[in-house]
Amino acid sequence: MKQILYVILLSAAFSIQAVAQDAPIFPKGEISTVDNHTGTVWLNELSAPDSIFNYSIAVATFAPGAKLDWHIHPGGQILLITEGTGYYQEKGKPIQIVHKGEVIKCLPGVVHWHGASPESGFTYIATTPGQRGKTIWLQMVTGEEYHGVK
Questions:
Q1: CA-to-CA distance for 121 and 78, rounded, in angstroms?
Q2: Is 140 exposed, middle or buried (0-12, 13-18, 19+ CB in 10 A)?
């Protein structure tokens, strides 16, 4: 009986540890209501720019198929992919498929878009310097552009 109890307790401990390792570090945030994306996107601003640290840090979570419009970060942006599979594309270049654990460096002034793949949600932590100005939003990503993965 003690051996069975020990196995049950050990099994429960490993299950709890596995769940804890899969739990997100930061909450999802609120559903974005701005008009610069397609699909459902949650945004959680972790740190706004201030007089000492002039960059923002945010978590963005995308439902499968959700994507941002084409845009430009005047100061650039770094994306740390924490969950799922997503797309990143710079104007005139092929779509890159990106996965959990990868880092994307969006160069200053480069027109690009990013979002979830059709089959997977997608989450990243973004850090964006504010000294060169706010994000410049452009046109929507077309279905043809989004499905242009080769």
A1: 19
A2: middle
- 104-146 pLDDT, tens per residue? 999 999 999 999 999 999 999 999 988 778 899 999 999 999 9
Q: Is residue 88 within 8 Å of residue 114, measured between CB atoms? A: yes
- Using one digit for the tens of pLDDT, what is the confidence trace for 18-66? 555 666 778 888 888 888 999 999 999 999 888 888 889 999 999 999 9
C-alpha distance from residue 100 to each of 18, 83, 117 (Å) = 17, 5, 13
Q: Show the DSSP H helices in 27-148 as ranges.
A: 143-146
Residue 65 corresponds to which amino acid?
Answer: G
User: For residues 89 and 13, what is the distance between their CA atoms, to the nearest angstrom?
Assistant: 42
CA distance 143 to 118: 11
Beta strands in the chain (DSSP E): 30-31, 37-38, 41-47, 55-62, 67-68, 71-72, 77-90, 96-99, 103-106, 112-116, 122-129, 136-137
